[in-house]
Amino acid sequence: MEKKSVLILGTASHVGKSSVVTAICRILSRKYRVAPFKAQNMSLNSWITKDGKEIGIAQAIQAKAAGTEPTADMNPVLLKPKGDCVSQIILLGEPYADKSAGQYYDSIAEMNAVLEGALERLSMEHDIIVMEGAGGAAEINLYERDIVNVGTARLTQAPIILVGDIERGGVFASLYGTIALLPDDVRKNVKGFIINKFRGDLEILKPGLKQLEEKTGIPVLGVLPYFKLNIPSEDSVSLEDKESTETKKDIEIAVIRLPRISNFTDFEPLEELAKIRYVDLDEELGTPDAIMIPGTKNTVNDLLDLKASGMAGKIQTFKGKIPIFGICGGYQMLGRTIFDSGIENGVEAEFEGLKLLDIGTKFGAYKKKTIQVTKKVNGCGPILASIDGEEIKGYEIHMGVTDSCRNIFGDDGAIDEDGLVIGTYLHGLFDNRNVRDALMQYLFEKKGLEYRPENITTENDAYEELANMVERNLDMKKIYEIIGV
Fold first, then answer.
1. Domain named CobB/CobQ-like glutamine amidotransferase: which ranges (predicted)?
2. Superfamily of domain 4-230+462-483
């Protein structure tokens, strides 16, 4: 068949573009070879492909929903903010440079060439490419430098579907205003609207839908209800949703919300089993049943902030009392020292860690380890002894090398003498049911409760649930016509 594509744009960030793309990828994959594509993503939640390339986690999710293997071409440019208006640029899955926003925009012509190559390769392997924009489509100050919204629209001339979030209020104004501000050559390709996150009475909304269609000449393809997603979150904006979620679960796990937190999706598999509370550095830690220190885009600066805020001392008081896990940057912080040759903080120096694990970390080169791994559990201590010898899977994304004489997952990680402080470089640790159950079994027994492993929704089930909900509420026949299939 002739190669087809569709571009999903939004009126703002966090309106649901990624979930709509995920659902459409799933639906179309039942008949066609489908690939997701996002020219440029800004996120600290990333994923490692089979060939060791780093991409935004949203595109990995979308690829899995489409039944295809994630590749760097699906997210050719990934920006990972480091602070002070500087981001690490990941180009086709590889670290390229650290640049300020101004420096990055000076290289847009080079980025466009990368996008063209990625799209060409994807088109050779797939029938349909479902593309996603970023933020709001009508950022009029960025039109000449925007590669992900207007840039992708102009490069591909794909039909466009615009998504608005009614929960934020003003959805009609945001949809109408976006259309009004788009350049003429882009506006002509907008073929439909989707209204997302609706909680009310659809009959009350219908007059507004009719007026929007009359004023723009563009059809509303459907209204999606507010829907709890069981797929990993795309970026830190999703943390705001988590903070407002109350739960009466028996177990409380505190995740330290580092200023430069990354890959907090590591803890989402625990959300159905425990209350996960994200704790800012200036908040009270309280009396959690376990503490998690997540990954970070800058280990040294987050360690310094952890200490300056007093949170480091609060965490240290729980040693030997409750489980304390550190993943990636959190693992590095748990050690004796971190030596930075200037890679992390710009100046050669040695920093004292939390001293909860007998390890040391060195940042010696601007080189990142990115790999999917399978490891064997070297089970010891009250949590992991029950799964000694079993296999787990995960992926590594980190700079720095850590020495450890008490590896806990194959040649990775460390554990203290009590078996309660555990560190590892493995992202996706709690995606492994055996690790998840071992931790929850320990926490429940410690409180005199019976742990009954729950049937957690699998990724595949989550994609089906999302796709079925979207099919029920959107005019899929019209969407097929828009795409041309």
1. 252-434
2. P-loop containing nucleotide triphosphate hydrolases (3.40.50.300)
